Amino acid sequence: MIGIDGNAPQTAVDSYIAGDHVGNVIYLGGWTGMPKVAATSHHLQRQATSAATGGVPLLIAADQEGGAVQQLKGAGFTRLVSARDQGTMPAAQRESYAATIGAQLRSAGVNVNLAPVADTVPASIGTANQPIGRYGREYGNDPSVVGTAVTDVVQGLGRANVAATVKHFPGIGRITGNTDITSSGISDAVMSANDPYLQAFSAGIKAGADLVMMSSARYPKLDQANQAPFSSAIIDGLLRGKLGWQGVVVTDDMNAVAVAGTPPGERAVRFVAAGGDIVLTGRPADTRAMISALTARGASDKAFAQKLQAAEQRVLALKERMGLLTC
C-alpha cells in the first residue's frame, strides 16, 4: 500500500500500479474537496487492469479519524471533531457519526478508513504521549471506555461498507515518543499478553473490524528482540493466536524513523515472516526494493512462500467481503 499526496503527479502513481503491481493506495495530505478525491479514486481503479493487478480492484485508504488527523477535507467532507470528543458522545450518536464519515469516504471512492484508534492513553501520561495523547486521538483513558467507542466506530463504518482498521496494536498509549519521527521513547515496558489495554483491540475485533494496524514500537515483555511489526510473537502469537484475529494485518508507515535502521526490503520481509499482510509505505520509492526482497525470499524459502500466499488470500478475502471481487 503506497501513500500519495494531493500534489503527487498522477503518472507517477500510475506507474507503480502498472509496473510494480501495487494493489492498494493511501491518501496522505493535500486532498481538498470531494470532486478531486472521487475523480482520483475513479482514475486509480481504472488502472487496476488484468495486466497490472490481475483485474483485482484496489483498496483505497485514508486516515479519517477526526481532529488533527483528517486527510480528506473541504467541500463534501465534514470537519470532524477529535476522537477525544467523539468519546464523550452517546453510543448511538457516535455510531451515526462514524456512519456519516463512512458514507463520505464511500462517495469519494475510499473503501478503507485507517481508524479507529484503539490505543488507551493513561491519564497520568496524557498529552505527554506524543503520537496519540498530544493530538486528542484517544477515545478515553480507560480501556473499557475506549473499547466501547471503538465498537461504535467499527459498526458505523461498516454500515457504509467501509473497512475499519483498529490500530496501533498492541497499543502506543504508554509510550512518549512518536514512532513517525523518532526511535527514542518508543518502548512500552508494561505491555504483556494479559494487559487490560488489549481489551479495546479485542472489542474492535469482536465488532467486526476488517484490518488491524501494527504499531512500530517495542514491547520487551512480549518480544525483547523485535519491534512489533517484525515480531512473530506479537503478530502470529498474540494477535492471531491469543486474540484470534484471522483477518488482514497492515503495518503503520514503513517510512517511519522508528524502523529506518532496517533496510526497506528487509522491513517488508520481516513483517510478512512475522505474520503480516499489507506493507504500507508513505515513500513509494521504497516499493521496488520491498517487492524485490519479498519475491526473492519467496523463491528461495518455501515456508516464506506459504506466508506470502496466506497474506494474499487474506487480502483477497477482504476485497471479496467488500464486494470488490466479482466471480
TrEMBL record:
Name the top EC class.
hydrolase
> Could you tell me which residue ranges the Glycoside hydrolase family 3 N-terminal domain spans?
9-317
InterPro entries associated with the record: GH (IPR017853), Glyco_hydro_3_AS (IPR019800), Glyco_hydro_3_N (IPR001764), Glyco_hydro_3_N_sf (IPR036962), NagZ_Beta-hexosaminidase (IPR050226)
**Could you state a single Gene Ontology molecular function term?**
beta-N-acetylhexosaminidase activity
EC no. given is 3.2.1.52
Respond yes or no to whether keyword Hydrolase is given for this record: yes
Keyword Hydrolase among UniProt keywords? yes
- Could you provide one GO biological process annotation from this protein's UniProt record? peptidoglycan turnover
Q: Which reaction does it catalyse?
A: Hydrolysis of terminal non-reducing N-acetyl-D-hexosamine residues in N-acetyl-beta-D-hexosaminides
Q: Which SUPFAM superfamilies match?
A: (Trans)glycosidases
Query: What keywords appear on the UniProt entry?
Result: Glycosidase, Hydrolase
Similarity comment: family membership:
Belongs to the glycosyl hydrolase 3 family.
Q: Which PANTHER family match?
A: BETA-HEXOSAMINIDASE (PTHR30480:SF13), BETA-HEXOSAMINIDASE-RELATED (PTHR30480)
| Identification of the protein by name | beta-N-acetylhexosaminidase
Species of provenance: Flexivirga aerilata
